[in-house]
Design a protein that fits this description.
The structure is a homodimer of 431-residue chains. In chain A, 43% of the residues lie in helices and 20% in strands. Chain A is α/β, with parallel strands linked by helices and 431 residues long. The model of chain A has no long low-confidence stretch (mean pLDDT 95). Chain A has 14 helices and 16 strands. In chain A, the strands form 4 sheets. Chain A has a 7-stranded parallel β-sheet with strand order 10-9-11-8-7-12-13, sandwiched between helices. In chain A, strands 5-4-3-6 form a 4-stranded parallel β-sheet, sandwiched between helices. The first copy, chain A, folds into 2 domains: 236 residues, Aldehyde Dehydrogenase, Chain A, domain 1 (3-Layer(aba) Sandwich), CATH 3.40.605.10; 145 residues, Aldehyde Dehydrogenase, Chain A, domain 2. At the A-B interface, helix 1, helix 10, helix 14, strand 13 and strand 16 of A face helix 1, helix 10, helix 14, strand 13 and strand 16 of B.
Chain lengths: 431, 431
């Protein structure tokens, strides 16, 4: 690709580290901006995206031409495509973020010690956040503005297929922001896409406080194995629905079908259905009818196949850990709630799992014992995301357990600081 | 050392991963224990430490003999030494933890969405925590019981110099706990100290949710570069006191002397003193008198040396980033609050920094603009620790910004989970 320019390893190192140093300076300036200032900056960014829309679309056309020449599929080209409508959606997304509550400055804890020292734990920005992504060019804007609203500088490293669009969008955001006094270098995009730039970012723990990789497993694996700083990532979404012996079977059919088919390509879609054996004979034909109507391929355990006959094929061991992201569903009959929990904790991805039951005790056990970011009782798995949770925005869904777990929004892009005030307290007072 | 037994790389891998798998099972069991159960376990552990004190001291004697044979210094041998008094302190420390509040189950956020879905964000244990340490054998107990109280399983990897003591203490904790129904394998110590065991732990992201390295820079560097899971660490403590132009100079002298000399060997001791130029002529002779009385070597910038004459030697560039942990102090005269902040953000370690001033505006600027875990106004830097902050216990002080920053206690050993309850809500309701 044209964006992988001929740079020596030293030149790539120097370029990326120079951006890191500038980002650190920008982060110190960003940390002390008021909410009003940040919101004015966001509105100026949205305006600039509109002003520069012709230029952005021209650059986007270069990506599309290169993509066609290199044989990208129609679906991939569509992901890459920007037009007036999509660009307007990006700009109004930026305005939306200006309306969200600013988490910076929230007081998380406050205490006065017997010696009179007053301690405040207060939310502050993280600092500099690196985002490495492969997806659509709108991620450039979405990620940068969420980081900005939470007071962080960003270094963006997008994929080669969208480099022209990404450069144009990042430049418009920075230029627009500067009209409202955004500190220089608050939003920087690495202008080339050589693979080594990922390695350099991963090694730059002096300047990067956090890396968020967004993309395929290969990219995430690379970042995880190289990074010297914290990484927040989203691996698989292998989500389960467990139909308990005390389930309302009509509700269970609806939740299973909705979780599987409302949008099968996303991480919170259902992949394995677990059915309590005492309701399997009654429930499985009902759910199979609903699934067949949506053309879902069913792969069942032996007991499932015995009940469903030709409607299901036999599941293999690897089906229990599969993230199909497609109209395919693994189905297993289990002897108990306990077996369901064990199955989920062993084969799941700690993303989102649901129990359907009318029995409160069973629900509470499931919610407490399943070790996943989101555990649902009688709610479709498709609801586990930042917008549905009312966070107003989402930078991703974390399958990690440290710092941020589950849907990540502005709060998850902050750290905290202890501010300690006194009147000269000493550990060893004289005399 | 005798504890580095002859094991092949495969044997080490298999042994460590087998412990990881068992720890994961233990973690699921620990996560659902009630506070009362955990407290009973802790009391049983303390009792068993007392019952087994003779065995533990016998094992400790083996470490001391090996240490003498290998030429450890007297100070190092003293760090290794256990006796009745020290072991009693370990046991009563375990009892203290049983009296602390249990963070697990705390509701962090609660909301009901317009569609009726009820979302709870609730504290849960992290899971399995790996602790790699080089220090005294009491760390085995301190770290394990804080992890246990917060519902986590631990895999401990202590240094070779304390292996006999560590094994005896870990065995007593696990055995004592099991008398009160502690799940098997909740506390596991790697029974050998081959270097490869660190690498295996660092690669075991399937079973370890977090690694906390406690020890020298070399150990921390190794863990940071190898770890595939989050690491929470404590690098340097390069702490500053800034004496503002509006400082109460008597208070400033007391805070500088206390911060530097009350215990110079610890991470929150003062290393660089910054002095506003408008008070330097008056202040420096006063503080030099106090420091000289405690035999502190002073290394000053040119302006400092011009004022202090023979009392100070000239500081070199590396003094501004030095963590002396000794009776040495770097001193620099700065032209403004702004220069002080810039100096700290560039040369400090984001640990603890203090401003002495009577001017509220200057104090607020310093507290907001210095990017450190703990920022103090008129309080000795020596107060930045978990006990002084009223956390009741401390597993370390984090110089990271993600998940935990500054003093880390029980809350920082937890994650959270979203529990979502509804009545069959669907993303795409039928009809």
């Amino acid at each position: 690709m044209s964006a992988a320019v001929a740079l020596s390893p030293e030149e790539i190192h120097d370029a990326v580290f120079a951006m890191g140093k500038k980002a650190r300076m920008a982060a110190h300036a960003l940390a002390v901006l008021s909410t009003d200032q940040k919101n004015a900056i966001l509105r100026a960014m949205a305006a600039e995206l509109r002003v520069q829309s012709a230029e952005i679309l021209t650059e986007n056309a270069k990506d599309l031409a290169a993509g066609e020449a290199s044989g990208l599929t129609k679906a991939m080209l569509d992901r890459l495509l920007l037009d007036e409508t999509r660009l307007e959606a990006v700009a109004s997304g930026v305005e939306q973020v200006s309306k969200l509550d600013d988490p910076v400055g929230d007081i998380l804890d406050e205490r006065t010690r017997p010696n009179g020292i007053r301690i405040q734990q207060i939310r502050v920005p993280i600092g500099v956040i690196g985002i490495i992504y492969e997806s659509r060019p709108n991620v450039t804007s979405d990620a940068a503005v969420l980081c900005l609203k939470s007071g962080n500088a960003t270094i963006l490293r997008g994929g080669s297929e969208a480099i022209y669009s990404n450069r144009a969008i990042a430049a418009a955001l920075q230029a627009g922001g500067e009209k409202a006094e955004l500190p220089q270098n608050s939003i920087q995009l690495i202008p080339f896409t050589n693979r080594e730039s990922v390695n350099e970012m991963a090694s730059m723990d002096r300047y990067l406080d956090l890396i968020i990789p967004r993309g395929g497993k290969g990219l995430i694996e690379t970042v995880v194995s190289l990074a010297r700083m914290p990484v927040i990532k989203h691996y698989d979404g292998i989500c389960h629905v467990f139909v308990d012996r005390a389930a309302d079977l009509k509700m269970a059919v609806e939740i299973a079908v909705d979780s599987k088919t409302q949008k099968p390509s996303v991480c919170n879609a259902l992949e394995t259905l677990l059915v309590h054996e005492s309701v399997a004979k009654e429930f499985l034909p009902l759910v199979a009818e609903g699934l067949a109507a949506r053309k879902v391929e069913m792969r069942g355990c032996e007991k499932t196949c015995a009940i469903l006959g030709d409607q299901a094929s036999g599941a293999r061991e690897e089906d229990w850990g599969a993230e199909y992201l497609d109209y395919i569903l693994a189905i297993k009959v289990v002897a108990s709630l306990e077996e369901a929990v064990l199955h989920i904790n062993e084969h799941g991805s700690q993303h989102t799992d649901c129990i359907v039951t009318t029995e409160e005790g069973a629900a509470e056990r499931f919610l407490c014992e399943v070790d996943s970011a989101c555990v649902h009782h009688n709610v479709s798995t498709r609801f586990s995301d930042g917008e549905e949770f009312g966070f107003g925005a989402e930078i991703g869904i974390s399958t990690d357990k440290l710092h941020a777990r589950g849907p990540m929004a502005l709060r998850e892009l902050t750290s905290y600081q202890y501010r300690v005030r006194g009147e000269g307290q000493l550990k060893a007072p004289p005399g």
